[in-house]
Amino acid sequence: MYKLGKYQFESFKYRPGHRANYAVLAELGDSEWGMKYSPTYSYESEYTVLKKFSHPQIPKRYDFGWTELFENNKLVLNEHFIVLQNFEGEDLVEYYKQKGVPDSHEMKNVIKYILSVVEPLQYLHKKGYVHADVKPGHLILNPSTGIIGLIDLELTIKTGELIKGVTIEYASPEQKQMNNLLKNVTDARGEKAVLKQVKIDGRTDLYTIGLILYEVLTGKVRAETAQQPIEINNAIPQKLNEIILGLLEEDPSNRIPSAEKLKDELASVV
């Protein structure tokens, strides 16, 4: 048995690509909660930003702090932690790795799942925020309901702010550009110069949705091939192929411009 402060859990998991361990806690009130914890990374900013949101597909936050971790009453080390709503489900890309590349009959489910993702993104963008770290492990699919939870808002920013970090494999071109520029920045003046060159807005999240949709429908990572998705999986409807390419435009001004527009486009796929 593990105990972190006043919270107890029987086991935890480490997910590659994540900075934290994750444990499901005993029930608090009438909801099930989970805990992320790390010896090096504070969750104060995520706890603070989650306070601004109220959406069923974005986790509620309960507590955060810094305290001692015990395993079977033996001190392990001190950990930063955040307690938040636990979403049961599976990583969207991993789900299709297990299930197999979608055929024509499965397309309607893929569209349903992506439409589900768009809901919390639309909410964030209307609030003036960008998730800025959408990736497969942050999209948790509940196969029984078809609803996807959008988790891990550690790197969430206000539209137009500097990024706090980047997952290169799922970053938009403008995130990569800003990340490269920031490597040489040492003061506030330099930061302002970067912001004049690069703007991060909701289209960044949409680019990443395009990468994930490409991976789900083809079983391949976009960076590893220049093929259109329909050339890899001919079960993809032509309209859906066009949507993916529209999400993956390098220039944000040519990209599908908003979550609302993406919803309309997906609804038109037959």
Polypeptide structure, described:
- The protein is α+β, with helices and mostly antiparallel strands and 270 residues long.
- It folds into 2 domains: 2-85, Phosphorylase Kinase, domain 1; 90-267, Transferase(Phosphotransferase), domain 1, CATH 1.10.510.10.
- The chain contains 9 helices and 12 strands.
- The protein has helices at 44-50, 92-99, 107-126, 173-182, 188-197, 202-218, 229-232, 238-247, 259-267; strands spanning 2-4, 7-9, 13-14, 21-24, 33-38, 61-71, 74-85, 90-91, 129-130, 139-142, 147-150, 157-158.
- The strands form 3 sheets. The chain has a 7-stranded antiparallel sheet. Strands 8-10-11 form a 3-stranded antiparallel sheet. The protein has a two-stranded antiparallel ribbon with strand order 9-12.
- The protein is globular and about 60 Å long.
- 36% of the residues are buried.
- The model has no long low-confidence stretch (mean pLDDT 93).
